[in-house]
């Protein structure tokens, strides 16, 4: 066995067919002859990771163990992990169903009850994982499977991380798919359970409205919208959406972490209530308050308030994804001098636009950081006082002395 394409078996599993290929490797349908059941095999070709292969392999096993500890009706079950030749593999539950992305499309919303049913099942699966310290970080339609009986399964906890364990750090690595990222993920900041809730909010919006809340011609435009724009309410684009769902989606898509749902348990509870009211065909009363910055009040997207943007940007920037439970160093926070966050891509682009200097302009192909750009801006020339300046000051001083002398003499005459 030299490559994944040539193999007919992996470990004790007999390959039946290839299901798909992803960034980490190939996914196969296979047969477990020992238990006589179909399984899905997710592989990673370790030969492709020449540098730090031992750390890479250790991370794969760690993530597999984290996912393997989950047992919930709405999460795909991990059966086994192992290594066969240069392939590390993960054997998991084989799902007879379709990916959610095949059900939704531009201008094609799902029936409201179906959309709510899918969202509530994903929320329940996430709630279970979150309570066990695991954040998915890549909730998107391809990772949500719909079975023929309507049961929803969350797949690919491959990039999930045990928040309470000692795991490898990934410097400069952005986890997740741009279209379904939360604002904090877009800015390279630490993702927690509320990031999964935001991603699910994008999916629910797309199922209800038939279009994604954020878009753009490129990744940069997309990320700008996620951080800065409030999309119109789903009911504006689909009249079948009840007002209660507008409120739920607004709270899921709140830019500020404090205004967002704090747990998937709370989200699932509200979605269950909406599902009950839809089934009963009763009027749906709105909640007393609506997050003001989450959705636009009109049919067009609007810029979020300055306070909302500030609450996102003021959070500590950390390009290295340490464990969520790592304490924040007070000494580091109070260090004087220029913040390391100033060398972020966002700061670089912003400063380049202000100064008119393009990144890489000073050093050929080498990309400059924001700090280097700042240092490359020519400082204003320092000039001393010119002769005219001294003359003006001298004349003014002389006139002042003469005026004062005249005033003193006038008082003596009196």
List keywords for this structure.
14% strand, 2 domains, three-stranded antiparallel β-sheet, disordered N terminus, Transferase(Phosphotransferase), domain 1, alpha+beta, elongated, Phosphorylase Kinase, domain 1, six-stranded antiparallel β-sheet, single chain, 414 residues
Written overview of the protein:
- This protein has helices spanning 53-68, 112-131, 183-186, 193-209, 219-228, 234-237, 243-252, 264-280, 306-313, 330-333, 345-355, 370-376, 387-413, and strands spanning 9-10, 13-21, 26-32, 37-45, 78-84, 87-93, 97-99, 134-135, 144-147, 152-154, 161-162, 229-230, 302-303.
- It has 2 domains: 11-93, Phosphorylase Kinase, domain 1 (2-Layer Sandwich); 97-313, Orthogonal Bundle (Transferase(Phosphotransferase), domain 1), CATH 1.10.510.10.
- The strands form 4 sheets. A 6-stranded antiparallel β-sheet has the order 1-2-3-4-6-5, with helices on one face. Strands 7-9-10 form a 3-stranded antiparallel β-sheet. Strands 8-11 form a two-stranded antiparallel sheet.
- The longest helix has 27 residues, at 387-413.
- The protein is an alpha+beta fold and 414 residues long.
- Residues 1-5, 162-175, 286-292, 317-344 and 354-365 have low confidence and may be disordered.
- 37% of the residues lie in helices and 14% in strands.
- Helix 4 packs antiparallel against helix 7.
- Strand 5 and strand 6 (87-93) form a beta hairpin.
- The chain is built from 13 helices and 13 strands.
């Amino acid at each position: 066995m030299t490559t994944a394409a040539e193999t007919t078996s992996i470990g004790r599993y007999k390959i039946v067919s290839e299901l798909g290929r992803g960034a980490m490797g190939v996914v196969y349908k296979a047969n477990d002859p020992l238990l006589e059941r179909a399984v899905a095999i997710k592989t990673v070709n370790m030969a492709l990771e020449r540098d730090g292969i031992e750390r890479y392999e250790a991370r794969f096993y760690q993530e597999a163990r984290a996912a393997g500890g989950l047992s919930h009706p709405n999460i795909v079950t991990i059966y086994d992990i192992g290594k066969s030749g240069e392939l590390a593999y993960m054997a998991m539950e084989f799902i007879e169903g379709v990916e959610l992305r095949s059900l939704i499309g531009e201008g094609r919303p799902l029936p409201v009850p179906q959309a709510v049913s899918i969202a509530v099942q994903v929320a329940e699966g996430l709630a279970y994982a979150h309570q066990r310290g695991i954040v998915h970080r890549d909730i998107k339609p391809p990772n949500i499977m719909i079975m023929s009986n309507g049961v929803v399964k969350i797949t690919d906890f491959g990039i999930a991380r045990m928040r309470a364990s000692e795991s490898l750090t990934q410097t400069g690595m952005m986890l997740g798919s741009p279209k379904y990222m939360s604002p904090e993920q877009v800015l390279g900041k630490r993702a927690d359970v509320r990031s999964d809730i935001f991603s699910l909010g994008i999916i629910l919006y797309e199922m209800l409205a038939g279009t994604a809340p954020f878009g753009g011609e490129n990744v940069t435009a997309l990320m700008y919208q996620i951080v800065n724009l409030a999309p119109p309410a789903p009911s504006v684009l689909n009249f079948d959406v009840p007002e209660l769902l507008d409120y739920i989606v607004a709270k899921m898509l709140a830019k500020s972490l404090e205004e967002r749902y704090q747990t998937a348990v709370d989200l699932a509870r509200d979605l269950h209530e909406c599902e009950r009211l839809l089934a009963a065909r009763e009027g749906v009363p709105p909640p007393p308050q609506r997050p003001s910055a989450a959705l636009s009040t009109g049919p067009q997207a609007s810029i979020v308030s300055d306070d909302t943007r500030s609450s996102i940007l003021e959070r500590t920037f950390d390009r290295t994804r340490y464990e969520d439970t790592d304490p924040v160093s007070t000494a580091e926070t109070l260090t004087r001098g220029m913040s390391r966050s100033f060398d972020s891509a966002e700061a670089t682009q912003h400063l380049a636009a202000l100064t008119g200097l393009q990144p890489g302009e000073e050093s050929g192909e080498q990309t400059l950081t924001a700090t280097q750009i700042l240092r490359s801006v020519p400082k204003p020339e320092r000039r001393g006082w010119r002769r005219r300046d001294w003359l003006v000051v001298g004349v003014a001083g002389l006139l002042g002395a003469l005026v004062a002398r005249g005033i003193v003499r006038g008082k003596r005459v009196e």
